[in-house]
Amino acid sequence: MNRIRALDEETVNKIAAGEVIERPASAVKELVENSIDAGAHRILIEVLEGGKSLIRVTDDGCGIDPLDLPLAFQKHATSKISGAEDLERICTLGFRGEALASIASVSRAVEVRTKTREAPWGSYLRLEGGRTAETKEAGCPAGTSITVWNLFHNVPARRKHLKGAEAELVHIIDTITELAIIHYDIAFELFSGQRTHFKSTRSRSWEDVLTRVFGLKAVAGMAPLQASGRGWRLEGMIGDVFSLRSSPDRIFIFVNGRAVVSRPLSAALREAYRNIIPAGKSPIAVLSLEISPEIVDVNVHPAKREIRLLHENEICLALTQEAARVLSSHARSVAAESLKRGDEIGAGEETLAQNIMQRTLPLESTEEAPRDESTPPRDMRPSLKILGQINRLYIVAESEQGLVLVDQHAAAERIRFERLTEQYQKRSIRQELAWPVTIELSAGEEVMLSSWKEVLEEIGFEISSFGGRAYSVRSVPALGGGIESAESVYDLLKDLFQRGRPAAESSNRDEILKLLACRGSIKSGKELTLVQMKRLLDDLGECSNPLTCPHGRPVMVTLDHGQLERLFGRR
Question: Is 286:206 a contact under the CB 8 Å cutoff?
Fold first, then answer.
């Protein structure tokens, strides 16, 4: 018969580590938050192999007293609270005393060098497998430096499920970016080997770090936001309707200085943008909520990423109203300035503007004029009689076999995919832009760009550094108008980066070509003329595989005469 038994300390620490330390970025976050709580003005973060082989966090904070140093790595030993009553008024980032013990228990070794400002010398501590291996006096500057070697070396299941070094590095960059935004009064630097991935300077405002994250142009369009209520105060910066993203990953939310995920607050912000930005787009924003510790629970999840607010509805309503007011005020201001400057475009100016618009050579777009009817007939031309369009989605045609329904987007994807493939094989896919466009990438996106650079060049992209986070795009794949603007280039790259790095056994060219084909294709919901429908079906008839799109979905469905008769009870 099994008996209940108390687990040993090593097992308990490993269980806690599984809850608190999910990946290298989690360890970095815990160590950096300790540095912030220590009053650091400058924090250096060094990682190797995405933090899997080495993490080193060095700060100029208050340091750890030699007598306290061994206690720092004991379970639930903390300087942040002294009793249960303190849980109701927590003002620090870390408080449970789990992080250092958890990190040490799942690392091959941890080394600490620390010195308080008053002490004549510093202290050195080395732990192996979570147990103290060496302590001694050491010469070091005021502050603390903690080095973690081989994270999860004794937890193979966790290490096995970590992603590649570059993917883990992206998570670390995202973590440091969040911390640098809200703690703009601290200088952060993240580097790996000789390369610096993120660097910010001490500042009295958000402006410097937000410029590094969003880019100068986006920050220029951001406006301040403020609201307050019973026991809480909200402030932040929200972007205008021209600074949009394809996903909500550029909405940063902080509660009492801690980066959190809050669906209610995110939804409240997006509600203010409803009906003024396209569906599927998301604004950029930074929201900082200072709230009395008694009315917020930050300990809902072990990673402290989720929160629970007591006055959630009140705060969300105030956020929506204030954001809507700021956006309205900003829009009126921009309109007033335009009228004041006399920016109305006359007919002659409009013609000139149209003439200098960015253009690439067309890839036989369906928007072209119909071909001369003297062109030799194609296989599909005499066999299909076009009847119309349903829901601006399906082309309806009649053939000798019966009724044919064609998915216009899937058909356009197939056509463009095969043409792109042919162009790639002929090495004629590259199309220079008439004028280069400039895009801004985050630090994490820069890492992914370096991974995809070779493949991107092969399929027609020419992207070069333009200084800071800016990149100049001089050429793109010839899509006939599919990607010409900075936004369209950025959106395409972001979709590509979300797939991760290219697989070692494949260049992933086909996957990119599919993505490009989808980007440039006729969309569902677009109304087509009979000429455009006819042209689309003609081009589809020339494809090698006209029955499915590049993703394997059907392009057309045929209801033969027998099926039609059965539907109407004639059989």
Answer: yes
